[in-house]
């Protein structure tokens, strides 16, 4: 077996205390990440990733939409989606809606992408009214800017939205303790997921946006440290979105990976590098189903 990379979990949780990282695929321990209502009824996220693997992007958008709605209604166990004190699991639902919008754009359905972006923007605005911490409100503003970029907003509106999120982070600076911890909460990791998935599509499946790239250099300046997220996105996310639209493809999220394996080969591109995600073995490079050899 080739080199295994455990650094990327398909769920935005604290990796160091996630019980699923010892499994070949984090999806094999679904009970650690889904509610009881999500089990036994079919996982739309799994269906979305299966659709990505077969280039059925409109179907992937539909399934990501279902996944987003489900998690927004019931984010994790007994958590209330409007409980501003929790760690932000509703952000995962918003992230699914964002990826749904990207799928629609790639499939040539800009109107549906705009519908999903409008929906996500409205939900992110509403959730901002439910949280007391300025740092969470800033992150939800960041996600709102992402939705504007994913939809058909005027480029100036997109830039202004990221500027407002950046200003919110900087204004919240004195109230933010341990910005590095905040950056690894479900809300903040979910806010980074659409960007990372889009970027890896154009980087031959590799990690194109790592944690250090997305954040500032000095965590002692908490506001600026987190505001770097919006600066990077303002500069890169719109062009990355155009890139996947022009390429006509969106890769699967990165799960558990292995390089130069002797047990799988991609029938599409010939790669022996694999990506275990959502209970499937996909090609790390092109996201097609990888076949045993």
Give an overview in words.
With 293 residues, the chain is mainly alpha-helical. The chain has one domain. 50% of the residues lie in helices and 6% in strands. The protein is built from ten helices and six strands, in the order E-H-H-H-H-H-H-H-H-H-H-E-E-E-E-E. The protein has a four-stranded antiparallel β-sheet, covered by helices on one side. A hairpin with a 2-residue loop joins strand 4 and strand 5. The radius of gyration is 18 Å and the shape is globular. The model is unreliable at 1-41 (pLDDT under 50).
List keywords for this structure.
10 helices, 293 residues, disordered N terminus, 4-stranded antiparallel beta sheet, 6 strands, two-stranded antiparallel ribbon, globular
Topology:
Elements: E1 4-5, H1 44-53, H2 57-73, H3 90-106, H4 110-128, H5 134-150, H6 155-171, H7 179-182, H8 186-201, H9 211-214, H10 222-247, E2 256-258, E3 264-265, E4 274-277, E5 280-283, E6 291-292
Antiparallel strand pairs: 1-2, 2-4, 3-6, 4-5
Given the C-alpha coordinates, what overall shape results? Answer: globular
Class by alpha and beta content: mainly alpha
Low-confidence stretches: 1-41
Main sheet specs: 4 strands, antiparallel
Give the neighbour order of strands across the main sheet. 1-2-4-5
Q: What sequence of helices (H) and strands (E) makes up the elements?
A: EHHHHHHHHHHEEEEE
Q: Give the termini distance in whole angstroms.
A: 12 Å
- The total of helices stands at 10
Indicate how many domains the architecture comprises.
1
Helix content: 40-55%
Beta-strand fraction estimate: 5-15%
E-strand count: 6
The whole-number mean of residue pLDDT values reads 87
Mind telling me the C-alpha Rg?
18 Å
């Amino acid at each position: 077996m080739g080199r295994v990379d455990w650094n990327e979990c398909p769920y935005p949780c604290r990796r160091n205390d996630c019980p699923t990282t010892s499994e070949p695929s984090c999806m094999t321990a679904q009970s650690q990440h889904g509610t009881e209502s999500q089990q036994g009824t079919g996982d739309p996220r799994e269906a979305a990733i299966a659709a990505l693997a077969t280039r059925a992007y409109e179907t992937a958008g539909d399934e990501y939409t279902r996944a987003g709605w489900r998690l927004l209604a019931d984010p994790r166990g007994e958590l209330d989606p409007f409980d501003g004190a929790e760690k932000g699991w509703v952000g995962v639902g918003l992230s699914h809606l964002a990826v749904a919008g990207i799928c629609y754009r790639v499939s040539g359905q800009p109107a549906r992408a705009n519908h999903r972006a409008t929906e996500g923007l409205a939900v992110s605005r509403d959730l901002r009214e439910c949280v007391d911490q300025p740092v969470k409100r800033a992150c939800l503003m960041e996600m709102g800017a992402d939705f504007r970029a994913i939809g058909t907003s005027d480029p100036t509106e997109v830039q202004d939205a990221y500027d407002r999120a950046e200003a919110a982070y900087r204004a919240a600076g004195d109230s933010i303790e341990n910005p590095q911890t905040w950056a690894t909460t479900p809300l903040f990791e979910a806010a980074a997921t659409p960007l990372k998935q889009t970027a890896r599509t154009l980087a031959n499946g590799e990690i194109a946006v790592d944690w250090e790239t997305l954040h500032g250099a000095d965590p002692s300046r908490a506001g600026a440290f987190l505001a770097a997220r919006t600066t990077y996105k303002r500069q890169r996310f719109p062009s990355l979105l155009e890139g996947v639209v022009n390429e006509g493809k969106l890769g699967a999220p990165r799960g558990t990976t292995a390089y130069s394996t002797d047990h799988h080969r991609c029938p599409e591109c010939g790669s022996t590098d694999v990506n275990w995600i959502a209970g499937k073995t996909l090609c790390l490079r092109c996201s097609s189903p990888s076949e045993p050899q």
